[in-house]
Structure formats: structure tokens, C-alpha cells
Amino acid sequence: RYLRNYIRNLFAGAWEPQDLSPLPIHVPQATQEEVQRCAELLSRARKPLVLLGSQAMLPPTTPAQLCSALESLGIPCYLGGASRGLLPPESPILLRQNRRDALRDADLVLLAGAVCDFRLSYGRLFNRGAAIVAVNRDREQLLKNSDVFWKPRLAVQGDVASFVVRLAQSLSGFSCPREWGEQLREAERRREKEIRDKATVPAPPHLNPLDLLLCLDQLLPQNCILVADGGDFVATAAYILRPRQPLAWLDPGPFGTLGVGGGFALGAKLCRPDAEVWVLYGDGSLGYSLMEFDTFVRHKTPVIALVGNDACWSQIAREQVALLGSNVACGLAYLGNGTFGTSWHLLAPGLGTHVVWELWGG
């Protein structure tokens, strides 16, 4: 009787007709006064900079419209999170290196969906005299850590992409100072050369991960989707690999929730079956979704995985060794010869997949 009562209460009304129409979506929008105020600040800036976050990719504004608006403004721009790939790799306003130095020099920073958290050192990276304009749909994210190390000159609670489009329309005659753009591009070229030089350094008996990732970047097709699931290896890939198109980079996000690789790759391949989906794994994060390769086989969703195998939770170990003098259990298993990490590739045939390369990172 107890169970019958429980089940009756649990499913009471389950078969009654319900309204299943979508709930209305409210997208906050900036006021015209806020757009105009930002335009005024921008028109006086000599060294403006845009930091774009994942939120900028939300509808109703399309990636193509947002890309066009950014190129119309002509302001040097860093892309983060899901916004990677919004600008084509050859875009003259796209920057990927030296963000810390650029922020210290900039006299105006537009946080377009970018959040002032640990990724921006909670605001300590900004030039103290810079005007900070923050735009975000969520008020808590908009003002995160403000009045500690930073304070926005203008804080706009509204849709990011539509704000940028309206800003570009209000500044149709605006031209970003050429000297500023050249300064940043020259620094970008120097840093890219440093990376290429480091990629030539042998790392026997291992592979140089910089060289490996630079080679991969040359091979990736236009229709590729990159799924990042790792720490140190993915952090390196983030400043080397170039997503070829908008919404073609998926990563664990600011909380670093390792284990998303298998699910993200499956979803990406099902949504875009013609895309070439690559999963970039660290050897630590691989353990969280390794069995999804069985899922890929059963559902006929082929993906390619590249594992940076250095037998260590390296991103954590880097800080812990410096702070504590020990890697504090960050080391993973080596083979008997003490040279190579766990032989993950041996699991592939058992899951119905194939090994093309057997690579070990240094």
C-alpha cells in the first residue's frame, strides 16, 4: 500500500494535457545611450582592444553579422572560449599571442562577453588608466570582481553581439589608430617566431609538442571541429591551432571540467556529420571518456583523437612543484623502461577503433 500511494503521488496528473509551447525568451538589450557612450569613449581611444567571450556567439545575431561588425570597427581583437574561430585566421585584427602585454598598454578595453575572473587575473592585467567597457547579459558576470582590482567605466547589461553590431553602425567613420595595430602585429610576429624556433628543439626520446601541433595546424581542413579536453597539452594547442570557422572550437570552459571530450565530439559529429572532428586529449583527461570510443563505433560517428601522453597532470604539476617542491601525486604511470607513458593506443582495437600514429609527448 505504501508503494502504491508513493507511485500514485509521483505520477499524479502525468497524463493530463500540458502546454508544451516554448517559454518566451527575454534577451536584454543595451540602450541607445549606452551604445553612444561607448562610441564616445572609443572615438577618443588611441590604443583600444576587444576581448570577446563565448557569450558573444549566442543568437539572435549570427556569427557572420558579428564578424562583419568587428572587421568594420578594425579594433585589435582577442577571441576566447567558443568565440575562437569567429574571425578567419588571416584577419588583420585577430590576435592570439601576448595578451597580457597588450592589456597593459591598452587605454580602452571592451569586454564583450569576456568575464574578469582568473583568466584576466581578476582585473590586475588592465592598465590602471584604461577605460573598461563591460558588456554581458548576466549582471553577476558583468561586474565579477569589480571594485577590487578593476572598475568599469561603463557596464552594460545586454546582449553582446547585438551591442557590437550597433556600436559598429554608430562608428561608421571610425578608424583604429594604425600605429597601435602595427605595434601589436609586430609583437605577434615575434612571438610566433619564438614558438616556431622552440618547435625545432629536439626532445628525445619524446616528441616536441610544439612541432607536433604546428604540423597538425597545417593539416586541418576548413571543415574541422576541434574538441579540447585536457590541461597542459590543450593549453599549448590553444595558442597554436587555429579554428577554421565560427563554432568550431569546444573546450571544458572556465571551470576546466575534464571529461567533456567524448560527449562534445559525439554531439559535434551528429550535428555536423560532414565535419572532420578532432579531440585533443591530455593523457589524464582521456581516462574520463575513453569508453566513448565504443559509442562512436556503435553509432557510426567517426572522430579522430590526438593524445598528448606525458604521464603527468602537467598543468597542475607546474604550479605545485614550484609551491610545494613536489608534484603531489600528479605523476601518472610510465612503462617499465621509464620512458613512455601508459600505452593508451593498445585499447583502441578492443573498442573497435584504429591506431594511425603512436605518439608520445614530452
TrEMBL record:
GO terms for molecular function: acetolactate synthase activity; flavin adenine dinucleotide binding; magnesium ion binding; thiamine pyrophosphate binding. It comes from Columba livia (Rock dove). Its cofactor is Mg(2+); thiamine diphosphate. Keywords: Metal-binding, Thiamine pyrophosphate. This is 2-hydroxyacyl-CoA lyase 2. The lineage of its organism: Eukaryota, Metazoa, Chordata, Craniata, Vertebrata. It catalyses: (2R)-hydroxyhexadecanoyl-CoA = pentadecanal + formyl-CoA; 2-hydroxyoctadecanoyl-CoA = heptadecanal + formyl-CoA. Belongs to the TPP enzyme family. InterPro entries: DHS-like_NAD/FAD-binding_dom, THDP-binding, Thiamin_PyroP_enz_cen_dom, TPP-bd_CS, TPP_enz, TPP_enzyme_TPP-bd. GO terms for biological process: isoleucine biosynthetic process; L-valine biosynthetic process. Residues 229-323 form the Thiamine pyrophosphate enzyme TPP-binding domain. GO terms for cellular component: acetolactate synthase complex. Residues 35-167 form the Thiamine pyrophosphate enzyme central domain. SUPFAM superfamilies: DHS-like NAD/FAD-binding domain (SSF52467), Thiamin diphosphate-binding fold (THDP-binding) (SSF52518).
